């Protein structure tokens, strides 16, 4: 049979998708949601299995938003084409390079952002700290050191909003095009001055001989996720620890780490809540008929709160078993930036933030929204 229809309240879903996702998991784990124009896969085991079945659930989406707006990057390729580009960028993001090259730069970036907060009694962790940290780190990683972190944040926001613009808002699309043009201009300028031998994305892709279109598309891919998601996770994990002092106490007692807090946060509030797929061929799977051309959303945010795998799925709890979490994906498109994110956020930014401001506490409620990409837009704090 075809997937059953399941109507949702779109504004409520954007504000907090988890109640709706819980109902979907229980009543219709594979369901067509007309408000999104897609079939949602919401149970963890289904997401885990289907993501690997690329012959049916294909990442290749010639008419998809990301491809049309940013170019065809490796996230929108399958098989050998995907692996070739993934291999080309590995010298930038592998664990050894993160440890030996990027970690020192990350510490300098975080220290500079913290110095900017000295003497202040209040701040917003999103705009006054996390935005600068993730933006400056991404300028270095991409090789676009000619782009300030403020511009990096703007172009990343513009692209991520464009890629989630399933309602077709023309103003959002126009801003996305403006942002991709800014990135192209900075790539051209960086090439004019010459790319050094640092393991930046621009450098390693050029040395690998990647075609110009692929190089540009993959830098845009890195910027779209590499700024927004770390920005949200830095501020979001800090907020989670401040509002769950019993969990922060475990870290301060040496019974857990800030890396544990980061891993639990991205399970609890998945910054990347879903990944789209195109049905490449008709297929009957688990009793549900999928037809070629259908659009499917693999709902990572739902999978990471599946009570079949997590004892306290809706709780931020550093003690629970999260081995089944798939915040970074579970198949061939496992996030290439996972090691970068864990180092920047869990090993460097969070420990340095709380060491500098050990008495930091909320100055008001955090504003969190989004379902495809979820996280805090504002986290006001008292620093002292």
Given as residue ranges, the uncertain stretches (5+ residues, pLDDT < 50) are none
Q: What is the helix tally?
A: 15
CATH superfamily: Cytochrome P450
| Cα distance spanning the termini | 59 Å
What count of structural domains?
A: 1
Bulk shape: globular
Overall CATH class: Mainly Alpha
Strand content: 5-15%
Mean pLDDT: 94
Rg, nearest Å: 20 Å
Structural class: alpha+beta
Largest sheet: 5 strands, mixed
Instruction: Give the oligomeric state of the chains in this entry, treating copies of one chain as homo and distinct chains as hetero.
Output: single chain
Number of strands: 12
Helical proportion, percent range: 40-55%
CATH topology (fold) name:
Cytochrome p450
CATH-scheme architecture:
Orthogonal Bundle
Question: For the largest beta sheet, what order do the strands appear in spatially?
Answer: 1-2-8-5-3
Q: Helix-strand pattern, N to C? A: HHEEHEHHHEHHHHHHHEEEEHHEEEE
């Amino acid at each position: 049979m075809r997937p059953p229809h399941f109507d949702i309240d779109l504004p409520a879903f954007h504000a907090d998708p988890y109640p709706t996702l819980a109902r979907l998991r229980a009543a219709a784990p594979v369901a067509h949601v007309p408000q999104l124009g897609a079939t949602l896969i919401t149970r963890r085991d289904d997401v885990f299995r289907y993501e690997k079945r690329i012959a049916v659930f294909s990442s290749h989406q010639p008419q998809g938003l990301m491809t049309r707006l940013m170019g065809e990057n490796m996230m929108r390729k399958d098989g050998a084409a995907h692996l070739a580009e993934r291999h080309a960028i590995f010298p930038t993001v592998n664990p050894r390079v993160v440890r030996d090259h990027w970690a020192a730069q990350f510490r300098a970036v975080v220290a500079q952002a913290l110095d900017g907060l000295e003497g202040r009694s209040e701040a917003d962790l999103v705009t006054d700290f996390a935005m600068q940290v993730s933006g400056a780190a991404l300028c270095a990683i991409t090789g676009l050191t000619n782009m300030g972190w403020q511009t990096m944040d703007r172009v990343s926001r513009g692209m991520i909003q464009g890629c989630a613009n399933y309602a077709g808002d023309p103003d959002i699309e126009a801003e996305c095009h403006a942002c991709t043009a800014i990135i192209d201009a900075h790539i051209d300028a960086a090439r004019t001055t010459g790319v050094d031998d640092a393991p930046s994305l621009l450098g390693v892709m050029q040395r690998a001989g990647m075609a110009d279109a692929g190089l540009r598309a993959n830098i845009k891919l890195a910027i779209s996720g590499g700024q927004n998601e770390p920005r949200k996770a830095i501020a979001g994990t800090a907020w989670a620890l401040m509002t769950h002092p019993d969990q922060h106490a475990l870290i301060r007692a040496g019974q857990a780490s800030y890396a544990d807090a980061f891993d639990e946060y991205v399970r609890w509030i998945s910054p990347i809540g879903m990944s789209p797929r195109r049905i490449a061929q008709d297929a009957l799977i688990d009793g549900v008929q999928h037809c070629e051309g259908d659009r499917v959303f693999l709902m990572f945010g739902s999978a990471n709160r599946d009570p079949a795998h997590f004892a306290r799925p809706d709780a931020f709890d550093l003690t629970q078993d999260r081995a089944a979490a798939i915040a970074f994906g579970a198949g061939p498109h496992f996030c290439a930036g996972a090691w970068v994110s864990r180092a920047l956020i869990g090993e460097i930014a969070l420990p340095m933030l709380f060491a500098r401001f050990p008495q930091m506490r909320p100055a008001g409620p955090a504003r969190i929204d989004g379902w495809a990409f979820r996280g805090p837009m504002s986290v006001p704090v008292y620093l002292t």
